[in-house]
């Protein structure tokens, strides 16, 4: 019988990764209220926005306003994505608790994403990491295309691990291995984590799955078997990658939390308050959220039988 962990950390990335692809403008006050609802639901880590240039992600151009207006809870880590030192400066000004940097495991995706080779990206990230550490910020690293690239296809496992090792050597506290286009399958995750356990510190490993082909929860299960206890997810299944066509649908936080709780694994998240937060952003967006939990709620609201 598998010995499951007693507690899993669920990192909510909806306010950043979930909203960045939305074409319709989401008012700043809506983002603020949504984050406040997430805080009240018991999340211990919320990625609130991204300090990138507005021309790249216009939806998140109000990152400063959001970061300074939310109701902070000292028990919650409020994180933000930063692309470079300038973005870091803005994040520090707003006193976020954690900054996240990003790089791809495949050359083509890295070039398309940030217009630099992987090797050219390391000095930029190192500068951010050193400055963030000077300001006593926790630093997280997103490693995109860890399970497949929209331009190159399969990415060798050793190549993924080599990039991750370089990030950890810089002093990054945690690496989130991203299934950017949602192609990971349970066997692939098993193979990847078997190798990662031989070369990296598993306590600094997190997983970021997309549900493009419906395998995200199965991939979480395999990850749990390997001892992974930190997962990124987006409430309602919002979001994807703006630089990977068709990669919509993050792992849905509400589906993940429901599964974990049914397995007897604690998260600290209150499911009823989480559903309130999901319903709030669904109404603000004016469209149904794709998660299974929200589909059930929406059908019940319409009086349909389950």
From TrEMBL:
<keyword id="KW-0456">Lyase</keyword>
<feature type="domain" description="Pyruvate carboxyltransferase">
    <location>
        <begin position="8"/>
        <end position="275"/>
    </location>
</feature>
<protein>
    <submittedName>
        <fullName>Hydroxymethylglutaryl-CoA lyase</fullName>
    </submittedName>
</protein>
<comment type="similarity">
    <text>Belongs to the HMG-CoA lyase family.</text>
</comment>
<dbReference type="InterPro" id="IPR043594">
    <property type="entry name" value="HMGL"/>
</dbReference>
<dbReference type="Pfam" id="PF00682">
    <property type="entry name" value="HMGL-like"/>
</dbReference>
<dbReference type="GO" id="GO:0016829">
    <property type="term" value="F:lyase activity"/>
</dbReference>
<dbReference type="InterPro" id="IPR013785">
    <property type="entry name" value="Aldolase_TIM"/>
</dbReference>
<dbReference type="InterPro" id="IPR000891">
    <property type="entry name" value="PYR_CT"/>
</dbReference>
<keyword id="KW-0479">Metal-binding</keyword>
